[in-house]
Design a protein that fits this description.
Elements lengths: L2 H4 L24 H21 L7 H14 L4 H15 L4
Helix pairs in contact: 2-3, 3-4
């Protein structure tokens, strides 16, 4: 697993009790979606910075938007991370 995408594991620090609710898949639609997106992007940006790397344009937004959508569709955090990591790796041609 790429260290850049591995940072999604850090999203687990977010209290999952605040995240259980059905809803739409749009990022920014509500506070829960905004929190998920915020913590995901902060984790990815932090890991990229530590590694001295720059994400391909749009990758952080794409990956974190995917996590929001998956969790809105009732996926667990671990399921959302696995799905979105795989999708981002394929979309951005990462090994």
């Amino acid at each position: 697993m790429k260290p850049v995408l591995h940072t999604l594991l850090l999203v687990g620090s977010l209290s999952l009790t605040l995240l259980a609710r059905p809803g739409t898949a749009q990022v920014g639609n509500n506070m829960k979606d905004q929190m998920i997106f915020h913590y995901c992007s902060k984790a990815m940006d932090g890991e990229l910075s530590k590694a001295g790397k720059t994400a391909p344009s749009g990758m952080v937004s794409y990956t974190c938007g995917c996590v929001v959508q998956q969790m809105d569709a009732r996926a667990s955090l671990d399921q959302a991370k696995a799905i979105c990591q795989a999708n981002a790796m394929q979309k951005y041609s990462l090994p």
